[in-house]
Amino acid sequence: MLDxxxxxxxIDPSELMGTFSSLPEQIEEGLAGVRDAAWTHPPSGxxxxxxxxxxxxxxxxxxxxxxxxxxxxxxVTRTPRIPPYVGQEDLLIAISYSGNTWExxxxxxxxxxxDLSCLTVxxxxxxxxxxxxxxxPHVFVPPGFVPRAALGYLLAPLLTLLARSxxxxxxxxxxxxxxxxxxxxxxxxxxxxxxxxxKAIATALEGKVPIIYGPPPYAGVARRWQTQLxxxxxxxxxxxxxxxxxxxxxxxxxxxSNPERFAPVLLMPPSDSAIHARFQHTLAxxxxxxxxxxxxxxxxxxxxxxxxxxxxxxLVSVYLAVLRGVDPRPVGSIDRLKxxxxxxxxxxxxxxxxx
Length: 355
Ligand code: F6R
Prior knowledge:
CATH class of the largest domain: Alpha Beta
CATH superfamily of the largest domain: Glucose-6-phosphate isomerase like protein, domain 1
Oligomer: single chain
Strand order of the largest sheet: 2-1-3-4-5
Radius of gyration: 20 Å
Helix content: 40-55%
Order of helices and strands: HHHEHEEHEHEHHHEHEHEHEHH
Number of helices: 14
Bound molecules: fructose -6-phosphate
Strand content: 5-15%
Shape: globular
Largest sheet: 5 strands, parallel
Low-confidence stretches: none
């Protein structure tokens, strides 16, 4: 079914498959667009990313890269309030592709009220407007995408700050983008299912609730897989982290009822990593009860491996959408919820506190 090009173009008429595949080009274009911007010096403190959904994922990936390469520390908050410990030495980056997400706007306004250094990223909306009136630098990303399909553009400003604070990352980035462009050729629709890991994984997940496990540095990638499966394939899916899940979830897997409803996917750590054996043992135990999909790390180099897994998960989610016969683009449920919040007045609340 996945090898039928007519089916693909019928089910994915807006060609999200191609848009997700353009991740390396989006990053390159995004990096070139901000190269000479005035804000590209990393702060002396930390970077706090505020955002939700497909926009916030850019922050998760930046967090992982900052931690791995020792660049500026990046923290992500997905709440309408900013943490009390954000200080004058920090930089707050509000990312909202639409520029109209309530949580992000609320956190941004709070940051303005506290006179914090800010940068905003999006394709317009209130975020761009407020930035302009308040004199906050704004990175415009191209319009016309769904937020989750503009990841490369949203990530580029963060990569710029990170690369300026880590020469190791700066050096690794061009090669990573080249490798990404090369490996995606193995996952494109023209490669038949027997030779195409993206199609094979989607096939294994059909009819199940996928649960994606990743090692801590790949937490953002595991979340991306989950959210792409949710939004593109319109399926329940969750993500979790190993080895932590060895201390709780494993009991449910081995001793709970009906595990066959679920499909564990293990994003494997490098074979020389301290936790590789934990993953192997978990795999063996899970296989006593359910089929397990194990996804090897495709490159030893961290940024390359990270981006490759992101792209692989994106394509898996579109192939699963094709198998399920659902258009990957619309997310009517998110739109309904946003509309209900606007109409119900929830978005105007000025109450203090985290919730
Ligand atoms: C839609 C998507 C959503 C949005 C989220 C926040 O493609 O991925 O998760 O990203 O609803 O909206 P934005 O990104 O516009 O702030």
